[in-house]
Write a structure and sequence with these properties.
The protein is of the alpha+beta class and about 325 residues long. Helix content is about 40%, strand content about 10%. Helix 5 packs across helix 9. The longest helix has 18 residues.
């Protein structure tokens, strides 16, 4: 490739016509090492294309004539061999769109799961991919990392065509933490520390409970995350101890941590609704620019909006349509 761009790097640059670039941290690191990006000092979560970056993008566009891999694909994707076909359709039926392997709870529960040979072929097909982690120095493959695989846009297209499954991007909801929490778990009768509370149980204030009720109505619990002032984006089942930290404190989570967490959660490939205040929205937006924040006003007003959304499917679906539109706009579609 004369332009020197990987398919992932080309996709990231092609989606950022204004020259300000965001994307998976590992891919951004590779583009920076190649001299195609430099940090954008006004925003720690964003990078700016260099002259070499623009030249590489122009060359790639000329070679590809502006076409995406999906646009070049056959109108009907060829059917995969049996186990690979089953693996893609199984992932498409899951809210998290993960291809279950031996490390997945589905294996322990006796549900459908797939061996490494199938996962290897699915990864090679481009229908599923791994997500980056903070210690990555470059883009890594499934062969190198062995991490869980998640459906790509191409995988979802395959599931729609070959499995008649109405699968689209994952629907993720991010809520915020709150000051009022459960007390520390304490000790058992032998003086040993009791297990920490799960994040989904830790916050007990009325405001957070309203947000959670709306989030539970909007999406599956596996796709709900809490923006913690100390820990960043955490799933509901993560054990947490009570803490007293706000976004104004020195030890509060920073933009770089949010960048890596969002990449690891695949928020670039999800429609995302945020339920909470503007301070947390400001923390998330540089990394998740397609974030849809439908709540407005003070806490009391927001609680009322959450109650209405919880009870009205039309409101919820309207929010998701807005989130999908924002995603498409930021993806350059």
């Amino acid at each position: 490739m004369s332009h020197g761009l990987s398919p992932t790097g080309a996709k990231i640059l092609d989606a950022n016509d204004d020259g300000l670039v965001a994307g998976h941290p590992a891919a951004l690191a590779k583009l920076m090492s190649d001299g195609l990006l430099v940090p954008y000092t006004a925003d720690r979560g964003t990078h700016r294309m260099t002259e070499d970056g623009w030249a590489a993008l122009d060359a790639w566009r000329k070679e590809n004539r502006g076409r995406s891999a999906l646009a070049d694909a056959p109108s009907i994707l060829p059917k995969l061999p049996g186990r690979q076909h089953e693996a893609v359709l199984t992932a498409a039926r899951r809210p998290d769109q993960r291809v279950p392997g031996q490390d997945d709870p589905a294996h322990r529960a006796g549900e459908a799961w797939f061996r490494g040979s199938t996962l290897r072929k699915i990864a090679a097909s481009g229908y599923a991919t791994i997500r980056p982690e903070q210690h990555d120095k470059r883009e890594v493959t499934w062969e190198e990392a062995g991490r869980p695989l998640y459906l790509t846009e191409a995988g979802r297209l395959y599931a729609r065509q070959r499995g008649n499954i109405a699968v689209h991007r994952r629907r993720v909801v991010v809520t915020v933490c709150e000051e009022k929490k459960l007390p520390a778990p304490g000790l058992d009768e032998y003086g040993n520390p009791l297990p920490d509370h799960q994040a989904g149980d830790l916050y007990i204030g009325d405001y957070h409970q309203s947000l959670r009720a709306a989030a539970d109505a909007l999406t599956d619990s596996a796709l709900i995350f809490i923006a913690s002032a100390l820990h960043g984006l955490v799933p509901l089942d993560r054990p947490l101890r009570p803490y007293e930290v706000t976004l104004k404190d020195e030890e509060a989570v920073g933009p770089e941590t949010i960048l890596w967490q969002a990449a690891g959660l695949g928020l670039d490939d999800a429609d995302v609704i945020f339920l909470g205040g503007q301070d947390y929205a400001a923390l998330l937006l540089p990394t998740v620019p397609h974030l849809h924040a439908p709540l407005a006003g003070g806490m009391g007003e927001q609680r009322g909006q959450c109650v209405r959304a919880r009870d009205n499917a039309g409101i919820r679906e309207g929010w998701w349509k807005e989130a999908a539109t924002l995603h498409d706009e930021h993806a350059g579609r």
